[in-house]
Write a structure and sequence with these properties.
Mean pLDDT of chain C: 90
Largest sheet of chain C: 6 strands, mixed
CATH architecture of the largest domain in chain A: Orthogonal Bundle
Number of helices of chain C: 8
Order of helices and strands of chain C: EEEHEEEHHHEHEHEEHHEEEEEEEEE
Structural class of chain A: mainly alpha
Strand order of the largest sheet of chain C: 6-7-8-3-9-10
CATH superfamily of the largest domain in chain A: MetI-like
Strand order of the largest sheet of chain A: 1-2
CATH topology of the largest domain in chain A: MetI-like fold
Shape of chain A: elongated
Number of domains of chain A: 2
Largest sheet of chain A: 2 strands, antiparallel
Number of strands of chain C: 19
Strand content of chain A: under 5%
Radius of gyration of chain A: 29 Å
Structural class of chain C: alpha+beta
CATH class of the largest domain in chain A: Mainly Alpha
Largest interface: A-B, 39 and 33 residues
Chains: A mainly alpha (368), B alpha/beta (364), C alpha+beta (361)
Mean pLDDT of chain A: 90
Helix content of chain A: 55-70%
Low-confidence stretches of chain C: none
Number of helices of chain A: 18
Shape of chain C: globular
Helix content of chain C: 10-25%
Order of helices and strands of chain A: HHHHHHHHEEHHHHHHHHHH
Low-confidence stretches of chain A: none
Oligomer: heterotrimer
């Protein structure tokens, strides 16, 4: 799948003769020779039989809007042709669609004829490969770098919130007698018994403007009925819902590590003269770090790739890069771009993992 | 010895029966729509042939999944319900089977061949049209701030002064861009020409900017009905059948606004790459499920217009509520006073480009 | 030792309950002298560890007062009590080196670095661990960890050191060696030590005084010698060292001496904790005070049931007056004749070695 992010064989496979002939095209200030059009007719005739011409059209349409229909339209005519060298194909093509007479199109076809391309990766970081070289995308089309940034920023925030809320809970559970601890653990695990969609939708019911929390605030008189708070379909909603959904993944590793820290360490620290805060900071916390590390890695990696929850409660400001990846894989079918985005995400995670290893040490991570 | 032979015969009989009556996986959109298909097509078909039908609700991702299945060489779907534009794409790429409409589908009761009965709705050789649906608006009837007015023009959606409150719009450029241009003074006939230009696109975004802060964006057809019912939005776009069930079946204080409704098609395709037996079974199913009576039957359960001309006169009353379904169809004359025809091919060319711009605009 | 016998720690009518119903410490009154080595000895659940934890400040007493050096400490948090403590599993901080572990109590007391290093070195020298300064606890053996834990509890020069079964995890030989070392450190540093253990030989070896706990009550508080020789009740007699006992009834009292009837036989015993005439009593005789002949005051018939050769002595189990667990230790000396299983002999002991105690079911 990762290979798709650079794969571009479709051009040379669908139009082999054309590409070969096009490589002899030196002077790109005039249209290619008749020979190129003849090869194009031959290649397209085969492509139409194999039904691959519209796919090539869709592929090239990523780089130049309007090509998809040129190929579809042309395909319908080419189907009826008998290929004969005596015919002037340049004229025939130009009669079907004047795009065949657009030099920019031919330059682009030549540019995208190699079997591998950096086009998808460039697109994934808001750059574009044109016949004049690589340049930044038009401002109205820049989105991916921004989304990567937002994804990482929000994932860090969610991880920290999970840690902040999960740490005391895990501590409490690890210190309680077995019976009450088990009961609390069941409460922690309970959400896993309901589907993710249900949990996310429950947040909708709570947070929407006509939802429970706004109703209570209006009832108490904290906000007016006409200025109900926007708590969902934005970043806030995504952060709240994801923190809730990912919290067990923080609590469980923390709990399993904390359970193994004997109470006597803190007692020893106190008997040695350290007050509550010092004994926590210097003795208890350092020993819980493996759990903190495991929990943070788990939550961060899960959240960086999350897309269902942001899709449902994120509105436009709370969606992640993974929503775009899912979109390209399932709907726009631009699998190359989807794969490029996913590869970048993967590399980003690996880099963060490496940095983490350097700072905290991966040996210091345990799940129990 | 004798009992053994009988047993053997029995076993082989059971075996051959199970092969003949293999289950069939039919992919559709889920919810009320799949329910209407189950009642109108699947159940009668199972009753007639004994073939069990398994519903799969992944129609939204049909093209992606069919491509993946085709590449993996293991197609597990037998019949797939897709929108017209997806059918064109699947047909173009050879992922859907070409259908000989006249020979492989039932003629109308009066003998009109299927191709004529469906007419222009056959947008691809692989496509068997099923329904005409529309994307249109519903609005709440109990908004105090509107002072008794009701929106009756598509441009009322963009008018926050006369009709304050949140709206829900689909999280994609299709339809929204067209409506925005119509309300920026572009003539209906020029919409796509204008949208092809940078200026036209900016114009559409500028119009959408006026209401952007008051929009909740939806991605599932069930979102708008839910948002309307909860009072989260005062008006919103969705498929007309969803609004029908909200208004008529669930009795919510919501009304339809049909102005500038956008027609679209939905129908069946059969994936390529099926074994001859499965392909034949799928064709048998389509022959049964797309005849004049069946298409009319589906309209008893959901307010989508049957795709055959010959089905229209047979559309009767709602199966449970007993109300006439005719006036609820998007094609009913009163509803179809101002319709907008969506251009598949234009969108096939400009979708990638506009999607990028659309998402960049949304994220800002 | 002039500083001894000065009350340093006092428990006054201390009670403790966890659930509000059952008292784990019933009514504790205990004075611990400055500079002494006091051991709290008892079976598990007897309340000894609870007492230690109340003294350390990890448990609150439900009732009563605990004073340290004359000051009430009930409401003082543990970290302000300046009491050193050695835990059962050492509780060395695993993420700190030996030196860092020792530095910890000095750092929280804001002691200068130079001073700190001196104290750490001195403390490590005391336990002969100076060369392990930079090791991590996990790299040390159990005995070494124990020494470090000891050094850590002493490095900040507390007046009082508490030890909660500190040697429980060590093997027998190491345990005995550590017992002497701890004892020597105590003498050298003139600190007060409160030591908790369930091992009576450890208690006898190390302590100046031993408080025997049972059922939330101190059964006897005495020096090891007195505890062994003069137990004041059946529990102590039974718990400390080996003991032979008979249940009987007091039939006459003559000053310090009572006559007790056991299955028709009459034995004379010291009246330690026996009741009036006619009341039931348990008499107790240490095995090494019994002779296998009829030369002493109290004489009984016995039959040899089991003989175990233990090198320096022979452990002989006899059946006496229906008690088949009567133990006699016969020293392995040249003139001792050899017994056989089934031999029927007379045994005898002195009334002064035989204590009439409370009757125990």
């Amino acid at each position: 799948m990762l290979f798709r992010s650079v794969e571009n064989q479709i051009v040379s496979r669908t139009l082999p003769g054309t590409i070969e002939e096009l490589s002899k095209w030196d002077d790109d200030s005039v249209l290619p020779s008749e020979q190129v059009y003849y090869q194009l007719a031959k290649d397209l005739k085969i492509a139409v039989e194999n039904k691959t011409h519209t796919r090539l059209g869709s592929r090239l349409n990523y780089e130049m809007s309007g090509i998809a229909s040129t190929f579809r339209k042309t395909g319908r005519s080419v189907k009826k042709w008998d290929i004969d060298q005596q015919i002037n194909y340049k004229e025939k093509f130009l009669n079907i669609d004047k795009k065949w007479g657009n030099i920019e199109f031919w330059r682009l076809l030549k540019l995208y004829s190699p079997k591998v391309t950096s086009g998808y990766f460039l697109n994934a970081v808001d750059l574009i490969k044109t016949t004049e070289g690589i340049s930044q995308r038009d401002e109205t089309e820049r989105i991916y770098l921004f989304l990567f940034q937002r994804t990482i920023y929000m994932s860090v925030l969610i991880t920290l919130l999970c840690l902040l809320m999960g740490y005391p809970v895990a501590y409490l559970i690890s210190r309680l007698p077995m019976k009450s601890a088990n009961l609390l653990l069941i409460f922690v695990l309970l959400p896993f018994w309901t589907s993710l969609l249900v949990r996310t939708s429950a947040w909708k019911v709570l947070l929407q403007q006509e939802g429970v929390i706004n109703d209570i605030l209006v009832f108490v008189g904290l906000v007016g009925d006409l200025d109900r708070l926007q708590l969902i379909n934005n970043q806030f909603g995504t952060i709240v819902a994801m923190t809730h959904i990912l919290l067990p993944f923080m609590i469980l590793p923390l709990y399993s590590v904390m359970k193994t820290i004997p109470e006597s360490y803190v007692k020893a620290a106190k008997s040695l003269g350290a007050n509550e805060w010092t004994s926590f900071r210097r003795v208890y916390f350092p020993q819980s770090i493996p759990g903190v590390g495991a929990g943070c890695i788990l939550v961060f990696i899960l959240s960086i790739g999350y897309y269902i929850t942001p899709e449902i409660v994120g509105g436009t400001s709370g969606t992640f890069i993974s929503n775009r990846i899912a979109y390209h894989i399932s709907y726009s079918l631009n699998w190359g771009l989807g794969a490029a985005l996913a590869s970048i995400l993967l590399v980003a995670v690996l880099i963060l993992y490496y940095v983490y290893d350097k700072i905290i040490g991966i040996d210091n991570v345990k799940l129990g | 010895m004798k009992t053994n032979t009988i047993l053997l015969a029995l076993v082989s009989m059971v075996f051959s029966v199970t092969i003949a009556k293999a289950d069939m996986t039919i992919v559709s959109w889920g919810g009320a729509y799949t329910k209407s298909q189950t009642l109108a097509y699947h159940e009668p078909y199972t009753a007639k042939t004994g073939i069990k039908i398994i519903n799969d609700d992944s129609a939204a991702e049909a093209v992606a999944k069919l491509r993946a299945m085709n590449e993996a060489g293991n197609v597990t779907w037998d019949v797939v319900d897709v929108v017209g534009s997806d059918a064109i794409r699947l047909c173009d790429e050879g992922l859907a089977l070409e259908i000989d409409h006249d020979n492989q589908l039932a003629a109308a009761p009066d003998g009109t061949p299927a191709s004529e009965d469906f007419g222009d709705l056959i947008v691809a050789d692989c496509f068997v049209p099923q329904i005409v649906y529309s994307t249109t608006f519903g609005f709440r009837t109990d908004v105090d701030q509107w002072g008794g007015k009701e929106p009756d023009d598509i441009c009322d959606v963009f008018d926050l002064n006369a009709f304050p409150g949140k709206r829900s719009l689909e999280k994609r450029p299709i339809n929204n861009m067209e409506w925005a241009l119509l309300c920026s003074g572009v003539a209906k006939a020029d919409v796509y020409d204008v949208l092809e230009t940078e200026e036209g696109q900016s114009m559409a975004f500028a119009k959408l900017d006026e209401i952007k802060d008051s929009v909740i964006w939806w991605s599932a057809g069930a979102d708008t009905p839910q948002l309307l019912a909860d009072g989260e939005v005062v008006m919103g776009s969705t498929y007309n059948g969803r609004l029908f069930s909200l208004i008529v079946e669930q009795n919510q204080p919501v009304k339809m606004m049909w102005d500038a409704q956008v027609y679209d098609l939905d129908g069946w395709i059969i994936p390529t790459g099926l074994s001859p037996e499965r392909q034949q079974a799928a064709l048998d199913y389509l022959y049964f499920a797309t005849d004049t009576q069946r298409l009319a039957d589906q309209a008893k359960y959901i307010s989508y217009g049957p795709a055959r001309a010959s089905s229209a006169p047979l559309v009767g009353k709602h199966a449970e509520l007993g109300i006439e379904m005719g006036p609820h169809m998007p094609t009913a004359p009163d509803n179809a006073k101002n319709i907008f025809v969506y251009n598949f091919t234009w969108w096939a060319d400009y979708r990638d480009d506009l999607d990028a711009k659309w998402n960049a605009w949304l994220a800002k | 030792m002039s500083i001894k016998n000065q009350d340093f720690v006092t428990f006054e009518n201390v009670q403790k309950t966890y659930d509000g119903k059952e008292l784990v410490v019933k009514n504790l009154n205990l004075n611990i002298y400055r500079g002494e080595f006091l051991t709290m000895l008892g079976p598990s659940g007897s309340g000894k560890t609870t007492c230690l934890m109340m003294l350390a400040g990890f448990e609150n007493s439900t009732n009563g007062e605990i004073k340290l050096n004359g000051n009430l400490i009930n409401n003082i948090p543990p970290y302000k009590r300046n009491i050193g403590m050695v835990f059962q599993n050492y509780a060395l901080f695993p993420h700190m080196s030996v030196a860092e572990n020792l530095a910890f109590p000095l750092e929280v007391r804001k002691i200068e670095k130079a001073d700190r290093d001196k104290k750490i070195t001195r403390a490590l020298e005391m336990v002969k661990m100076e060369q392990f300064k930079n090791r991590m606890p996990a790299q040390l053996s159990g005995g070494q960890q124990q020494r470090v834990a000891l050094a850590r509890s002493l490095v900040f020069e507390p007046d009082l050191v508490l030890m909660d079964e500190p040697l429980g995890a060590l093997d027998k030989q190491l345990r005995e060696q550590m017992q002497y070392e701890i004892k020597h450190l105590h003498e050298e540093l003139e600190i007060t030590v409160v030591y908790v253990t369930h091992d009576q030989s450890e208690a006898l070896t190390m302590s100046d005084r031993v408080a025997v706990f049972n059922d939330g009550v101190i059964q006897q508080l005495a020096s090891p010698n007195e505890l062994y020789e003069k137990p004041t009740n059946s529990f102590v007699a039974q718990f400390i060292g080996e003991n032979n006992k008979f249940d009987g009834k007091v039939i006459s009292i003559d000053g310090e001496i009572v006559t007790v009837e056991v299955n028709g036989n009459e034995f004379k015993a010291l009246a330690v904790n026996s009741g009036d005439i006619g009341e039931k009593t348990t008499i107790s005789i240490r095995p090494e005070r019994v002779r296998i002949d009829d030369s002493l005051e109290n004489v009984a018939d016995a039959e040899v049931v089991e003989l175990i050769y233990l090198g320096d002595h022979i452990r002989c189990r006899l059946s006496v007056e229906k008690n088949s667990k009567f133990i006699v230790k016969i020293p392995n000396s040249i003139n001792n004749y050899i017994l056989k299983r089934g031999d029927k002999k007379k045994i005898s002991w002195n009334a002064a070695d035989c204590r009439a105690l409370d009757y125990e079911l």
